[in-house]
Amino acid sequence: MRGRFITLEGGEGAGKSTHIRLLADWLGAQGREVVITREPGGTDGAESIRRLIVEGAVDRWDAVTETLLLNAARHDHVTRLIEPALARGAWVLCDRYVDSTLVYQGTAKGMALETLLQLHSLATGPLWPDLTLVLDLPPAIGLARAASRHGAETRFEAHDVGFHEALRRGFLDLAQRFADRCAVVDASAPVEAVSAAIEAIVRERLSL
Description:
By secondary structure, this protein is α/β, with parallel strands linked by helices. It has 8 helices and 5 strands; from the N terminus they run βαβααβααβααβα.
């Protein structure tokens, strides 16, 4: 039986990494094989591309270059890791996927939705998630959380507040557009409450 593909989306500091681990623990306790991965990244080649995208100055790349790099990384990720895992019956949990591209490079940076969807189809087959959890949080709170992290991956966090407000609107708009696979979660609630909400959505949407 083919596995399930769940993605977690949202702005910077929304708690995706925390909740992907908690969700993996919950699913694993039910006896499921769980694969945790992320985008951009997930494979050796895609992680090399990740460093090009998330490190450096804000203006290092324009939206077109970012989009092409992201889709190159996504193709490698899907063909080498995600599809093989789903084919053997594993549940794949991914920190960001195509919706981040639709919002970051589309809503916030002006790439046409149709172009982004065509590239996604070319890069992935197309592979869409069975369920997308959109962790919604006011940008000021998310950026404050993100600022506490250390490391070189600050290129997108360094954009101005208007960019991050556009991201939030973009994710909420996409959740409405693709309501059949998306669910919005209030990520400003305590971790335990957010985790419980996610589990309830997974039970309902994926018939657990």
